[in-house]
Design a protein that fits this description.
By secondary structure, the protein is of the alpha+beta class. It has two helices and six strands, in the order ββββαββα. The protein has a single domain, classed as YggU-like (Conserved Hypothetical Protein Mth637, Chain: A, 2-Layer Sandwich), CATH 3.30.1200.
């Protein structure tokens, strides 16, 4: 995947990840990427409902596991109530990007 097609970019704190969330999904996990008008986004499905922060917590837990970081290293920085979110992951941007790339590649291989 070309750098401009990735749904994440390095920032001072670590990595900013653009996420499109599907709540109340049958299975939780990555669903590839989606091209949006301004930037690409990572498709993430969670089984939690979009109420009382449950979907946000599930997204953060899923991304934390994918990046192998504690949940406290993640924060929703944009879009707490819509489907499109921006999440900041604290840590080394290159290692975080490599982990997300591997997670996404695995998810796309499983769904193929």
């Amino acid at each position: 995947m070309a750098p401009s097609e990735r749904p994440w970019r390095p920032v001072r704190e670590g990595l900013a990840v653009r996420v499109r969330v599907t709540p109340r999904a049958r299975r939780a996990g990555a669903g590839g990427t989606i091209a949006l008008p301004d930037v690409p986004a990572l498709r993430v499905a969670v089984t939690a409902p979009p109420a009382e922060g449950a979907a946000n917590a599930a997204v953060l837990a899923l991304l934390a596991a994918a990046c192998d970081v504690p949940k406290s290293a993640l924060a929703v920085t944009l879009g707490t109530s819509g489907r499109l979110r921006a999440v900041t992951v604290s840590g080394d941007p290159s290692s975080l990007a490599a982990r997300l790339e591997a997670w996404l590649t695995h998810a796309e291989g499983v769904s193929a």
